Amino acid sequence: MGGGKTTLSKGIAKGLSSQDVVSSPTFTVSNVYDAKNDIKVYHFDFYRLQEGGVVEQELRELTEDPKVVILIEWGDIIDESLPADMIRISIDRVSSGEDNRQVIVDIPDKYKYLWGLL
Q1: Which CATH superfamily includes the segment(s) 5-84?
Q2: Alpha-carbon separation of residue 74 from 8, 51, 57, 96 (angstroms)
Q3: Are 74 and 48 in contact (CB under 8 A)?
Q4: What is the full DSSP assignment across 1-43?
């Protein structure tokens, strides 16, 4: 909680030139934002769910669309349903200060080219 997940999501949406207001989908489970070049950003938050259920099928369908970026907060609950070749970003608080975070980005080889675009 309060680790910066939604702030990161806002930055990703802004980087994709979305003009939409990005907010945490904790209570709605998902939000969709429009971005440049007809890209859609799907933002999920599974914090309040006990299981992925119907959302897991929707995610499988969305991963097939090259015009879709999927952001998932608290994805542990559906980890087995997620593609193996996804970019995984972990955000953890560090003891050196309330506003300090350790960010770990795990990028599969097929997406390494994106790192140069950041």
Answers
A1: P-loop containing nucleotide triphosphate hydrolases (3.40.50.300)
A2: 14, 11, 17, 24
A3: no
A4: --SSHHHHHHHHHHHTT--SPP---TTTSEEEEE-GGG-EEEE
Our measurement of the distance from residue 107's CA atom to the centroid of its chain's CA atoms, rounded to an integer in Å, reads 13
In sign, the C-alpha dihedral spanning 93, 71, 38, 30 is negative
**What is the pLDDT, as a whole number, of residue 33?**
92
| Integer Cα distance of 75 and 91 in angstroms | 13
Q: Distance between CA atoms of 22 and 42, rounded to whole angstroms?
A: 11
Q: What three-state secondary structure class fits 112?
A: helix
Distance from C-alpha of 46 to C-alpha of 26, rounded to nearest angstrom: 7
Q: How many residues does the chain have?
A: 118
- Predicted confidence pLDDT, tens digits, the chain (118 residues): 556 678 888 888 888 888 888 887 766 777 899 999 899 998 888 776 666 666 777 777 788 788 888 888 877 777 777 778 888 888 777 777 677 778 888 888 888 887 765 5
